[in-house]
From TrEMBL:
Gene Ontology MF annotations: DNA-binding transcription factor activity; transcription cis-regulatory region binding
Domain of life the protein comes from: Bacteria
Organism: Streptomyces antnestii
Domain (HTH lacI-type) ranges: 11-66
Protein name: LacI family DNA-binding transcriptional regulator
UniProt entry keywords in alphabetical sequence: DNA-binding, Repressor, Transcription, Transcription regulation
């Protein structure tokens, strides 16, 4: 006897067959659109029964018949729990939906066992392909399970370049951050870079140097200071920046810029009147709420996710031999830059 509150039994293909007065195999052919010769009357009875009973075809059964899937997988190490990097999921989800796909997301928190299980689950669901993403830009060793699926790396890359990858253009971002300061007339620009080896460290330094070169300015290594990539690192570098008589500073990230703000204020000085500052990342919880609001360069997380799906579906094809597909990091000018004083 059915009790109140019991979960309703799912309508099966057999229920549809009984209601339509046809065989289960006939229902299967209609549901999966196999091309089998089914009479118009029988086909219509099946469709009417499906609608009246509320039958929902089993996605896995349809995948087995058609040999394909309307699912895409996304395996991430931690981006679902990092607010600004979670935009990767948002971008991938929007693009997948636009092309009739549903995104299956697994957040593994860097646990290798959870990662292997997530990939295995996605393979069982016969996903069309898998996006593999990390919350910061770095090289990765590919999990073995990814060899069984079309894969695109997002915000990371493989050292052998065997798998397509979509990454932020760190060099162009560093160039544009420096150019924002140059455009206001600054010529003595310090760069607080991270001590941590990474594509961001190398790329942003390269962009800084290229911007100086394009402005006809020599690169001065004494203006580059390696710091801890956090608020404490920016604060600790203030005296060194002031001693080198820099009028502006490009900071490796917004957290370093926040520490620099604190140090400048503690010395009775002001941003941007005494020192113009540009950050990187556009962490809005920091950049938009500093006073004055911080000019910065955004990491294009939404676009990384979106372009990753496009590469996976063959809609964007990276040029052969050019390495990962690099996505622009847009400048976000706010109020932390002004022209240098004449003194």
């Amino acid at each position: 006897m059915k009790n109140e509150g019991d979960t309703p039994r799912a309508v099966t293909m057999r229920d549809v067959a009984q209601a339509a007065g046809v065989s289960v195999s006939t229902v299967s052919h209609v549901v999966n659109n196999t091309g089998a010769r089914i009479g118009r009357d029988a086909r219509e009875r099946v469709r009417r029964a499906i609608e009246e009973l509320g039958y929902r075809p089993n996605a896995m059964a349809k995948n087995l018949v058609k040999g394909g899937s309307r699912f895409l997988g996304l395996v991430a190490d931690a981006i679902a729990s990092t607010p600004f990097a979670g935009q990767i999921i948002h971008g991938a989800q929007d693009e997948a939906w636009q092309h009739g796909y549903v995104l299956l997301v697994a957040n593994t928190e860097g646990n290798e066992e959870a990662e292997a299980s997530a990939i295995s689950m996605m393979l069982e669901h016969k996903v069309r392909g898998i996006l593999y993403s990390t919350w910061y830009h770095r090289a990765v060793d590919l999990p073995a399970g990814l060899a069984e699926a079309d894969t695109v790396l997002v915000n990371c890359y493989s050292t052998n370049g065997a798998v397509p990858a979509v990454v932020p253009d760190e060099s162009a971002g560093g160039h544009d951050a420096t150019r924002m300061l140059l455009a206001e007339g600054h010529r003595r620009i310090a760069f607080l870079n991270t001590r941590t080896p990474s594509p961001a460290r190398d790329g942003r330094l390269d962009g800084y140097r290229r911007a100086l070169d394009a402005a006809g300015l020599p690169f001065d290594p004494d203006l580059v200071v390696d710091v801890q990539p956090d608020q404490g690192g920016g604060y600790a570098a203030v005296d060194q920046v002031l001693a080198m008589r820099a009028t502006a500073v490009f900071c490796h990230n917004d957290r370093v810029a926040m520490g620099l703000y604190d140090g400048v204020r503690d010395r009775g000085l002001r941003v941007p009147d005494d020192l113009s500052v540009v950050g990187f990342d556009n962490q809005e919880v920091i950049a938009a709420h500093l006073r004055p609001a911080l000019s910065t360069v955004a990491l294009p997380h939404y676009e990384l996710g979106r372009r990753g799906v496009r590469v996976l579906l063959g809609l964007d094809v990276p040029e052969a031999g050019t390495g990962p597909l690099a996505v622009d990091c847009p400048s976000v000018p706010r109020h932390s830059i002004t022209r240098p004083s004449e003194s």
